[in-house]
What we know:
The protein is built from 5 helices and 2 strands. It is mainly alpha-helical. The protein has 2 domains: 1-73, Rossmann fold (3-Layer(aba) Sandwich), CATH 3.40.50; 75-120. It is globular, with a radius of gyration of 16 Å.
Amino acid sequence: MTTLKVLFLCTGNSARSILAEAAMNHPAIGGGRFRAFSAGGHPKGQVNPFALECLETQHISTEGLRSKSWDDDGPDEAKRKAFRDTFIALRRRIERFASVPFDELSRLALQERLRDIGGQ
């Protein structure tokens, strides 16, 4: 089985990207198919204590989590690839969303459509 690397990016790397990294690395969520990392453009330098508390209440390991810069994640070519891959995934989701006919954009229809897109 191939393990795919996933990089979650955000500005401060203290909460959202940390939560995503920990969740993706949790066996019950990522199923061991992924190795997740996170980083930020302007890291806070510490993980938000509420993020750590949230993960702990969900029984997700917080071991090794730290707020780090995206400058710490390897050589430039690896960074370029991570950004390119992230953009491609985002673009696919945005294109799917943008393809929804306007008449289907009611709140309930939109929620259902987003669930469908998120599962693909």
